[in-house]
Amino acid sequence: MACHEEMDECRVPQNHDHESPTKKESASIPTSTLTPYHNRIEIIEIQAHHSTAMTKEPPPSTLLTLPLELRLLILSSLLILPPTAPPASQNAFPHNPQPPSLSLLHPSILRCNQQLHAEGVPLLYAQNTYLAHPTLLLSLPRLRRSYSPVVTQRLADLITRVHVCVRLDAEPGYDRATATAQLSGKHEVVLEAWQAMWRGSGPDVLRLFEGVRGVRRARVEGSVGGFEEYARWLERAMVREPGARVDPFCWDSAREV
Predict the structure, then answer these.
(1) How far apart are the C-alpha atoms of 186 and 126, rounded to whole Å?
(2) Of 204, 212, 219, which is closest to residue 182 (Cα–Cα)?
(3) Are 242 and 215 spatial neighbours (Cβ–Cβ below 8 Å)?
């Protein structure tokens, strides 16, 4: 009995609150230090990610991602008639045969999205020369006789270059006030006079345009034989600033010349 008590006293008591130093140190060491193999895999994955990012091709360029200057050049080639296109004077008269359909413009590009529509509409209507209606002028203009007329007044107001076919031997469907209101301030106005008989009529119909002002470029051409000086005077009057007073044309001096 005494022997068993001595053996119990000799036993070393176990301390469950404190771990061995070796186990404590092992727990505090990072896993990456204990597993160098995994550390190498992580480095390889990072390098592969950077390599993939470096070799990835940029997205392809589209019309909308191009700079505005380049995009406007492309839209201009699609929406503005080239210099080789038939001029407006070749198909302005109603008695001329219908010209072949022009396939030089591609206005369908404006239907792609709102941005192209907003950028292309000013090019189509402000940079092309439109034919005025014979009696309504800019109420129903058209690009050429082979095109449909512009029926929206909002779009017609964007037109800045106008070719007017003025028949001298017939009553016009417009008055002086209408011509002044619709043609003043335009970039270019061409009045092409014509008549069925050579020198059969005078410039009375052309006098309806004497109130037009603020035109940047004005030209009066066609059947103006016998009143060429008046045609030049009308050109100078149309390019005067808006509201400017112009002395009436002196017909007596013109007859003397």
Answers:
(1) 10
(2) 212
(3) no
User: b/e map of 192-217 (b: 16 or more CB within 10 Å)?
Assistant: bbbbeeeeebebebbebbbbbbebee
**pLDDT bucket at 60, cuts 50 / 70 / 90:** confident
Amino acid at 89: S
Indicate the average pLDDT of the chain: 81
- CA distances 59 to 63, 65, 115, 167, 187, Å, are 13, 10, 20, 58, 42
CA gap 33, 147 in Å, rounded: 80
Q: Which tokens go with 7?
A: 């053996």
Confidence band for 85, pLDDT divided at 50, 70 and 90: confident
Q: Confirm if 206 and 180 have CB atoms less than 8 A apart.
A: no
Alpha-carbon gap, residue 237 to 120, rounded angstroms: 33
Better-predicted residue by pLDDT, 252 or 165: 165
Query: What pLDDT does 13 receive?
Result: 45
Which parts of 56-113 fold into alpha helices (H)?
Answer: 68-79
Closest C-alpha to 208, from 240, 181, 226: 181
Query: What residue spans of the chain are helical by DSSP H?
Result: 2-10, 21-28, 31-34, 36-55, 68-79, 114-126, 153-156, 176-183, 228-238, 251-256
Instruction: Provide the pLDDT for residue 92.
Output: 56
What's the pTM? 0.73
